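agent> Task received from the user: take the single chain below, predict its 3D structure, and emit C-alpha cells. No templates, no multimer pairing.
agent> Plan: (1) validate residues, (2) run structure prediction, (3) serialize to C-alpha cells, (4) report one or two observations.
agent> Step 1 OK, no nonstandard residues flagged.
tool_call: predict_structure(input=
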Amino acid sequence: MKNTREQDLAISSIEDNIAVNAGAGTGKTKVLTERYIHILENGMLKKNKEVESIVAITFTKKATQEMKERIREEIRNRFPLGDCWRRYYKDMEKANISTIHSFCSSILRENALEANIDPMFEVLDEDEGDLLLGESILKVVRKGIEKCENIYNAVKAFNMDDLTRVARELKSIYYEIRNAGYSFKEVRDMTLNIIDNIEVDLDEIQYIKDTFLYLMENSRKNSKVYRLKDDDIWIDFYNDSYDKCQLVPILEHLYDNIGSNAKEEDTIGELKARIHHIFLMKEKEYRWLYEALLELLIWIDEEYTRAKDEQGVLDFDDLQILVLRLLDDEAIRERYQQKFRYIMVDEFQDTNELQKRIFYRLCSDKEILDRSNLFVVGDPKQSIYGFRGADLEVFYEVMEDIEKVSGKKAITLDRNFRTVNTVLRFINGLFQRLMGDRYTSLMEHYISPNEIDVEILEKKDLEVPDN
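)
tool_result: status=success, residues=467
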C-alpha cells in the first residue's frame, strides 16, 4: 500500500527534529520501521556502528520485540542490495531498541563507577518498589510524628486518622516529585525560596484592574465578567476599599468570574497567571506546613534509598534519575551524544518530565534540541491509559519546542487504515468533546459500506426504560 504524503515526510525527514501526532490505525508502526531503514540507507552513521547509532524507545517489552522483528524483516528483504544489509541484520543483536528503563539500565551499567552503584544491580518491578516505598513511608511517618511537632501537625493537616491513607497521599506526592527529576532537597529549597520572596507590587494590582475593565468592555452583556460591573466586591476592589488581608479572597471571587472569551484568550491567560502569583501570598501563612511536609519527604527518600541499598536494587525511577545526573557530566554527555546519532521515541504521550529531560540532554548541545536528531510520535487520545507519572502536557511542550527550533509544525497522521467510517465518526465525536481544539479528527482511508451508527448521548438524554 502506498504511503500518504504525511507518512513519507515523517520517514524521510531524518536530519530534523520531528513530532508526529498519530492516531491508532494510521500506520505509525510502519512509519517507525521505514524511518529506521531510511536512516540505515541515508543517515550520517559511523562505519560498522550504524545499528548502534540509532536509538528507538518504546514503552512495553512486547512493542520492542515487534519493532525489532519488523526491522529485521525489512533488512532481510534487502540482502540482494549488498553485504552491508547482512551485517546490519547480524548487528541487530546490539540494536538500541528498548524500553526507556532498559535503555537507562544499559547506560548505568556502562558507568557504574561514575554513578556510584553496583554494576550487578537488580531492578525492582513496579509492584515490589511500590510495596517497599509504602513500608518506608509508614516507618518514617510513625517516627516523625513522635519526634517532631511540625511533622505531627503536617500529618494531622491531611485530616486523616488512618496512617495508611496518609501514606497513600504521601506516596502520590513522592512519585510526582520524582517524575519531575528533581531531588527532594532541591524542591524544598525552591519552594521555600518562592514563598519567602512573594511580594505584590501596586503595578500588578493596577494591571489586574485595567484588564478586568478591558474585558468588561469587550465581552457580551450577559457574560460573567460583564456582570462584575455591578458586583460590590469588584467595586470595593477597584476603589481600594478593602483590607490587605481581604486581597486573596477578593481575587478568588474575581478569578471565578472571568469566564471565557475566544477572542481574548491570551489576555485572559495572562490575567489568570498574574492572579495566581498573588494567590501564593496565601501560602506564606502555611510555610511551616510546606517545610515540614518536604522535610518528611526527604526523610522518606533517605529511608527508601537505604532499604533499596540493603537489597542491592534500584527502582524504575532510580534508573532515570541516575542517568539524568550522569548526563550532567559534560564528558559523559558528549560520549553518548556522539554514540546516539538518531533518537526515536514511540508512545510519547506516555512520557513524563524526567524522561523528557533525558532526551533533551542527548539531543541538545548549546541550545535546546540543536542536534536536530529527535523524532517523537504519540497519540494524545491514548494518554487516558497512560503509565504512572505520564503527563500529556510534556508531549505538547515538545511539539511546541520542535516547532520553535525547526519552524515545522507536528506532522499529523490522520488517515485511518483499519477502522470503518461509522466507528470513526463515534471516535471523533467522543474525543472532540474530551480534548476540544487539541484533537485532530481521524479520516477514513477507505469508505466502508458499513452503516452501523454509533451515537454519543448527553447524560441528560439518557432514560431508564420502564420495567
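agent> Step 4: summary for the user.
Residues 17 and 374 are 5 Å apart (CA to CA).
agent> Done.
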